[in-house]
Amino acid sequence: MGLLDTLLGHAGEKDITGLHAEFGPLLAKDEALQRAFGFVRDLIVFTDRRMIIVDKQGVTGKKTAYLSIPYRAIVMYSIETAGHFDLDSDLRIWVSGQAEPITRALGRGAGVRDIIAILAQATR
């Protein structure tokens, strides 16, 4: 993922080997990181059991929120792709027991299709 793509908010795949230090304490025994996609400061990380949405907050990004969504809890998801004049794609995930979907703006790029493919495989 290039600097320009990062600044524009385009989804780009991250190398998971560099994420083990941050995510090691958050993972269950025998849970493995599979893929990760980065946006300007945020991440969506996929393990063999769940999806983790990482939201870096504040000016420095030191405050971080981790939202863990087990694949079995995902009822439905949708993607609204970017058009000619849109700058981002929107991902919506409906979780069992919640009326409103979790919504994230993903940006343009191949990461959107990869994320949908992972969700399709994990929630089947």
SSE blueprint and pairings:
Blueprint: H1 3-8, E1 12-14, H2 20-23, E2 33-38, E3 43-47, E4 50-57, E5 63-70, E6 74-80, E7 90-95, E8 102-105, H3 111-122
Antiparallel strand pairs: 1-2, 2-3, 3-4, 4-5, 6-7, 7-8
Under CATH, the homologous superfamily reads Bacterial Pleckstrin homology domain
End-to-end Cα distance: 29 Å
Please count the beta strands (DSSP E, at least 2 residues each): 8
What level of helicity do the residues show? 10-25%
Counting H and I runs of at least 4 residues, what is the number of helices? 3
How do the SSEs run, as a string of H and E? HEHEEEEEEEH
Structural domain count: 1
Structural class: alpha+beta
Within the CATH hierarchy, at the fold level, what is the topology? PH-domain like
Sheet of most strands: 5 strands, antiparallel
Structural shape: globular
Radius of gyration (CA) equals 14 Å
Strand content: 35-45%
Strand order in the largest sheet: 1-2-3-4-5
